[in-house]
């Protein structure tokens, strides 16, 4: 053991942008971060899911840890110093310095509003992804906000998946056409995605741009589809997206739908299921918010509707906050009304909520039910070959 032990050197972390190493001004071996702090940093769905190679460790050290399936900050911080010494060959001092580095890297840092604004300006990233629905974009101050979660909810057949497919195309377009010029990760939990529909919307909505087979092929190859049919599969996919976002230049993440797998696996009438479901939703929301904020990209999620039962039965229903009860349809006293599914935990996690609902056999409307920027507003639309089209709006 002693023969393989060595001290940490500058070669053990990259010289590029990385969190600063915390080296306490101590004479001997300073204390390792307290267990409570480590457990907090490594909490599932939190910053602990960040990959070690993104916190400043050298490739050699990452490879050595990877051989022991130590890939994330959570994996690293849940090990004892002795275990880390055996895996890395470092001295106690070196391991302690690594623990401080990794802890600092995944701990939430205080920032001023000015620093956040400066960082976003320096990144030259778009603040919004246009929906090309001009009145909706105007109300939302530009479209679907980057760095936040946007939920699309409504009854079956009202156009939620059509909207997601349309946004997938828009994200791949050049920036001079209002796009983000990037790739898309599309997580499909209902097997509802249609490649044929994607091509049809692209050709019909932007006939001048998609005038060659090559451009259609390029756009469709940028949409990376994953079919995940269980809660565990969805969560594992989300928590593994960080490197894919970097390597593939992903500019939009879509999950269609969040509610599908959750409602299949968690029966809220069984004791304990509500608590477990809320834990899962909180973890999922935290991971998605981290990705949205870290990479300044929009995340679009679809949700289903459920029946809000009033009175004594309300505690067993899939409830949301009272403000959301009015979003879909209003019920009379002692009756029921339709609301967005998944409950209060999820309702408070999304930044923007758009509700799609029927106005008749052909017409539908989009409601801005929740937004930090826009008032409660409604827009009438129809579904055409080119996707969603607002009433009285000219074709793009």
TrEMBL record:
Stored InterPro entries: AAA+_ATPase (IPR003593), DNA_recomb/repair_RecA-like (IPR016467), HHH_XRCC3_RAD51B (IPR058766), P-loop_NTPase (IPR027417), Rad51_C (IPR013632), RAD51B (IPR030548), RecA_ATP-bd (IPR020588)
BP-aspect Gene Ontology terms: double-strand break repair via homologous recombination
Residue ranges constituting the RecA family profile domain according to the UniProt record: 125-305
SUPFAM superfamilies linked: P-loop containing nucleoside triphosphate hydrolases (SSF52540)
SMART domains: AAA
Any single Gene Ontology cellular-component annotation: Rad51B-Rad51C-Rad51D-XRCC2 complex
Gene field: RAD51B
Function: Involved in the homologous recombination repair (HRR) pathway of double-stranded DNA breaks arising during DNA replication or induced by DNA-damaging agents. May promote the assembly of presynaptic RAD51 nucleoprotein filaments. Binds single-stranded DNA and double-stranded DNA and has DNA-dependent ATPase activity. Part of the RAD51 paralog protein complex BCDX2 which acts in the BRCA1-BRCA2-dependent HR pathway. Upon DNA damage, BCDX2 acts downstream of BRCA2 recruitment and upstream of RAD51 recruitment.
UniProt subcellular location: Nucleus
Keywords: ATP-binding, DNA damage, DNA recombination, DNA repair, DNA-binding, Nucleotide-binding, Nucleus
Family indicated by similarity: Belongs to the RecA family. RAD51 subfamily.
One of the record's GO molecular function terms: DNA binding
Complexes and interactors: Part of the BCDX2 complex consisting of RAD51B, RAD51C, RAD51D and XRCC2; the complex has a ring-like structure arranged into a flat disc around a central channel. The BCDX2 subcomplex RAD51B:RAD51C interacts with RAD51. Interacts with SWSAP1; involved in homologous recombination repair. Interacts with HELQ.
Name this polypeptide is given: DNA repair protein RAD51 homolog 2
